Structure formats: C-alpha cells, structure tokens
C-alpha cells in the first residue's frame, strides 16, 4: 500500500464503510472528496488538516499513518506507527512542538482535550523533524483546530 488512496481504501473497508458515500457521511465531507482521495487525485502536501483528521477518525486510523503510511513496520501489521521514545537529541524538538501547540491553544482560548492536543503535538513534532519552519507548522496546527 504505497498511496494515500490505497491506504484509505483498506482502512475504509476495515472500518465498515462499504461505499465512498458511507465514509463521506462518517467524515462529514462529500462523496466527491472521498473519491478524489481514493483515486489518488489528492497529494499528501495538498491535504487539508481538517479533512485529514475527519477521514482518519472515520476509518479509525492515525492521521500520519493514513497520509504517509506505516513507517518502520512489517507489511500487514496494524497499530500506531509512531510509538517510540524520544532520544535526548530530539527532546528539544518535542519541547518546541509542545510549546508551539500550547501557545496556539492558549492564544485562541481553546481546550481541545488531551488526545487532540497530543495528536497536534505529534504532528508538529513530525513536521519540525522534517525541517518545516515553525511558522508553517503553526499554520498547519491552526487549520486542524475548530
């Protein structure tokens, strides 16, 4: 499963959504959007964070795993691909990601719950590790907020 569409199709079936229309209803989006994702008309760098989170929630899959695939695991294994302990070299990135998310939430006066905040922190960490600027990471985080 190398493409976003292939990963979504498998996850969609695993979650019990037989048709794109079923997933569209569960993800609060349109059937056309789901079809575009399934047919790989959407590239990872053009995915809107809000749609990614809704689709991933609807198919019960980690958003990063849906978008990028399961990293560092064998074929066919299920579960979270991002369960790892941070090394000391990455603690500064974890801290920066946490502070960035906390600052944005405080600035907007939002309380999103620990799961959503943790997911946002993980997303921010991954983007920072990829070399994405703090400003761009902040914009991505803000698009994922209500």
Rg from Cα: 16 Å
Oligomer type: single chain
Written as H for each helix and E for each strand, in order along the chain, the element string is: HHHHHHHH
The total of helices stands at 8
Descriptive notes:
The chain has 146 residues and is mainly alpha-helical. The protein is built from 8 helices and no strands.
Task: Write a brief structural summary.
The chain has 8 helices and no strands. It is mainly α and 146 residues long.
Search tags:
146 residues, mainly alpha, single chain, 59% helix
Q: What are the SSEs and their pairings?
A:
Layout lengths: L3 H11 L5 H7 L4 H8 L10 H10 L4 H6 L22 H18 L5 H16 L4 H10 L3
Helix pairs in contact: 2-3, 6-7, 7-8
